[in-house]
Every structure is written in C-alpha cells, then in structure tokens.
Amino acid sequence: MTTEKMMEASWLVLAAALLTGSGTAPAATVFPALERAALTVKAPQRQVMQAAAQAGERLVAVGERGLVVLSDDAGGSWRQARSVPVSTTLTAVTFAGDKLGWAVGHGGVVLHTADGGETWVKQADGKSLAQTALQSAEQALQGNAESAAAKRAVADAQALMADGPDKPLLDVFFQNARHGWIVGAYNLFFETKDGGASWTGAGVRLDNPKALHLNALRAKGDVLFIVGEQGQMHRSRDGGQSFEAVVSPYKGSWFALALGSDGSVVAAGLRGNAFYSADHGATWQPIEAAPPVSFVSANGLNDGSVLLANQAGQLFTSKNGAALRPVSAPGLQGLTGLLVLKDQKLLALGFGGVMRVPATGQIGPSK
Questions:
Q1: Cβ atoms of residues 294 and 313 within 8 Å
Q2: For residue 11, what pLDDT is reported?
Q3: Within a 13 Å sphere around the CA of 173, how many CA atoms are in the beta-carbon half?
Q4: How many contiguous H segments (helices) and E segments (strands) does the chain have?
Q5: In the chain, which residues have pLDDT < 50?
Q6: Each residue of 106-125: pLDDT tens digit?
Q7: CA of residue 259 relative to chain centroid, distance
Q8: d(CA 267, CA 300)
Q9: Phi, psi torsion values for 149, nearest 5 degrees
Q10: I need a surface site. Which of 38, 181, 239, 262 has the fewest CB within 10 A?
Q11: DSSP strand E in 18-168: where?
C-alpha cells in the first residue's frame, strides 16, 4: 500500500473511532450520535477541535462529539455553546456575518445557527442528503437519459440510501447568507440557495467517476474550486452551475486550499506537497522547501501571501509561489487547523484543543 493510500485509510479509521468513541466502525445504518445532543463537558476548549471561524468579533470553534466553543475576547477565554442537537464530530464551520453560521461533520450532518453560535439546529444529515442526491440524480437522468454521469450519480445515490448516514462531510463554504456548498467523502457535493433550508445534489456536475473524497472547497466571485483525494481538482467559472476537471500537478490527496482575488490558487496536501497557480489552475508551479509532512490548513492573507500549516505544527508562508519561509509558533503539535486573527495572532486547532498563540514573523489577517 502506498503512503498516500495509508494516509487515506488512517483518516477513515480515525473517522470511525471518533463516531463511536472506539476504534471499531459502527454499523452502517446506525448513527445514534445524530439524535443525541452534545453533552456539557469540563474545559471544552481542551477537547479535540477541528476548525474555527470568525463570527464578527466572536470566535467559534467546532470539534469532536458535537462540541462548539465560543470566545468573545479574541481567544482569551472560552465557553461551550448553549445548545447543539448532535454529538457527532464536526469537521468545518463558516459564517456569513456575525450571526448566521453553518457547521458540518460526520453522519452528513449540517447545522445552522442564527445567533452567532449560541444555539444550533440541524438542517440536514446523511439520510436526508442521500434522498436529495437521489432526487437530483434522477432529475438529471430524465433530462439526459444517455448520460453516463447521471446514471452513475443515480447508482451512487442509491448506495448512499442503502448505506445509511455513515459518511462524513468535510468542508462548508457560504458565499453569502443564502448561497453555499458542502463537500465530503465519496463525492458528496450539495448546494443551497436558501441558506440551507433546502439542498440540491451537485455531485453529478463533477467528473469524479470513482466517487473519490472531496476534502476542501473555496470560492471567489464566480470561481469555485474543489480539491480532494488522489489529485481531484474541479473548477467552476459560473458560480457552481457547471464544472471542469483541472489537471492536477500531484496525484496524491489535497487537504488545504486558498484562492486569491487575483486568480491565484494554492493547493496543499499529503507529504508536504504544495503548488501555486496564477491562472485559476491552468498552470502550476511547486512551492518548494516543505518537509514531507501533510498540510492541514491554508490561509490566504491580505498581502497576497498564503500561510500553510502541517500536521506537525510547522507554519510557513509563501507569496506568488516562492519557496516556503518558516514561521515560528510554539507548541502546535497535533494540528488539525489554523485561523489567522485580526491582531496578527493565530488560533490553533488540534488534539490539544483550541489555543491562541503568537507567531514570530509578519503574519497579516486573513482575507
């Protein structure tokens, strides 16, 4: 088994362990964590955390077993959200303004908050998304009965229905308060135009015949970029209505993505591989000087540079595809994500929880 395949397998094993609290995968059609509210825990900020976002002046971080933690003093102190309806691991979070936010996670769960993260409601889960995927695929097949992609999408959606809600969502991005997208394992891709009240299956729009995992997505204007397993790269130039496959400069998996308003793209993934494109992915150049450790985070900064973080807690900056420059930040082992704050400090997420840390070097705020 290649290193890349071993890495993908380890992610799936970890997912199963976090779902059940053990190393044993749950039965495919049983997912009690989707119906069990998150428990109140001591020092929630010290639990395993996966991602964070700014909600105005508030910081919101999400993690294992449905934990959502909030800070109103730039990460100095933290408290647990008042109400989260699930106890499944949450993998990503985004906000459109200071009140409206969405989080996604295992079991295909989609959560929404209208009060800055204090309380959350479930908008969708793996069961409802599988039904949505089947309806969308069947509609696409009706429109073109000879479409191989539509036939494949119908078969994939039927398999989702049979498997139950056992597949994780891995990223969420909202362009505004109404228009957003979610991606996940096995080509899970959905779009909403009403703030998550309803979703449309969009997997049929992607050239992904093996239903490989989709790990990250970002949008700038009408350009939407998706990256994932085994070099998967997909680009839309019309706001997500249609997609074209992008020839990947690396055949391993991508885990982090940053888009610039100037047409630049940075994709980073397994074994320290990172590449820069100045033309929306038409051509690529390697970003040199990275150790062979997988990247987990990419933050585009206001000066046009990008801040990359890897699993070992090492931080680097690069601009216009130049070789990486190390950024010194203490105690970031077991890193799962990173957020750049307005005061040039960093918010680190990982197996040790959520932590505000200083950085040595010029770090500007995220775009």
A1: no
A2: 46
A3: 21
A4: 3, 27
A5: 1-28
A6: 999 999 999 999 999 999 99
A7: 14
A8: 11
A9: -65, -40
A10: 262
A11: 49-55, 58-63, 68-71, 79-80, 90-96, 100-105, 110-113, 121-124
∠ CA 208-196-121, nearest 5°, is 120
Asked if 109 and 120 count as a contact pair (C-beta separation under 8 A), the reply is: no
- Integer Cα distance of 110 and 120 in angstroms: 10
Q: What is the pLDDT of residues 196-207, one digit of tens each?
A: 999 999 999 999
Q: Which token pair is 348?
A: 């680190």
What is residue 8's predicted lDDT score, i.e. its pLDDT? 47
Tokens found for residue 63: 């993690």
Structure token digits, residue 182: 């979610």
Q: Which two tokens stand for residue 339?
A: 């957020």
CA distances from 283 to 11, 77, 266 (A): 29, 44, 12
Q: What residue has token string 């190390």?
A: 326
Length of the chain: 367
Residue 56 CB neighbours (<10 A) = 11
Find where tokens 């228009």 sit.
179
Nearest Cα neighbor of 170 from 258, 80, 256 is 256
